[in-house]
Design brief:
The protein has about 140 residues and is mainly alpha-helical. The chain is built from 2 helices and 4 strands. The chain has 2 domains: about 1-60, no CATH class; about 65-135. The structure holds zinc ion.
Length: about 140
């Protein structure tokens, strides 16, 4: 037996762990049982042992494949950058809106004070008119 074959056999000699699709019981079985129908020890139903994916099938980017990784990282960085720029722009817009609202509130406060002052003047004028009318009434009586 070559070393390569020995390694392959050893790699295969790992238990398959899976949950029974019928009762959820965790079942552990020798890797050689992959794809076989077995009886679940818990619910006694026939279940098929899943076949583990070969490593070649795994959708994992090899860590040493810089040709693939670097452009992917650059894309991710560019996306993060544009997302950050959008957030900064949104933040600045929100800050401008706060400044505008504060200004508007200050203006409204000023206007409110002007209206209050005018109301006081109108009240004073009305008071004077009432006094004048009362004086006139007194004189007329
Ligand atoms: Zn079961």
């Amino acid at each position: 037996m070559t070393d390569e074959l020995q390694e392959a056999v050893e790699k295969e000699d790992v238990d398959i762990n899976f949950d029974c699709p019928l009762c959820g019981k965790n079942i552990s079985i020798d890797a050689r049982g992959a794809g076989l129908m077995i009886t679940c020890p818990d619910c006694q139903q026939k279940v098929q042992v899943p076949i583990p994916l070969a490593e070649d099938d795994a959708a994992v980017v090899p860590a040493d494949d810089a040709d693939v990784r670097v452009p992917a990282l650059q894309r991710a960085l560019a996306e993060a950058d544009s997302r950050r720029e959008r957030l900064v722009a949104e933040l600045e817009a929100a800050q401008r809106r706060v400044v505008l609202l504060e200004k508007s509130a200050a203006e409204q406060h000023e206007r409110f004070e002007q209206i209050s002052a005018e109301l006081v003047m109108i009240q004073n004028a009305l008071d004077r008119m009432v006094t004048l009318l009362q004086d006139a009434g007194v004189r007329d009586a």
